[in-house]
Design a protein that fits this description.
115 residues; 4-stranded antiparallel beta sheet
Length: 115
Amino acid sequence: VQLVESGGGSVQAGGSPRLSCAASGYIYSNNCMGWFRQAPGKEREGVAAVYTFDGSSYFADSVKGRFTLSRDIVKNTLSLQMSSLKAEDTAVYYCAAGVATNFGYWGQGTQVTVS
């Protein structure tokens, strides 16, 4: 499985950028896809994810109400629509995918810098 992220870059506080992730290769029917981020000097944290085994989704408390996910099953893409960005959202954002709830595949990451 390969994951390729796009989007990101430098945005102003309050902006609404969109990150996209395209997955290729073998996609298990029972899978998960999501976004993680790692800010300088901090550990990587989960931002948002969707799980096909029960149709549930997850959003970190810090992004609830500001970030949304959209998934295209046919195209195997997952997009993260961000809004009301804050300086603390600055991080490298990674797309991840896996089986069930185990994220075993990772993209190369895309930088989002909020100023």
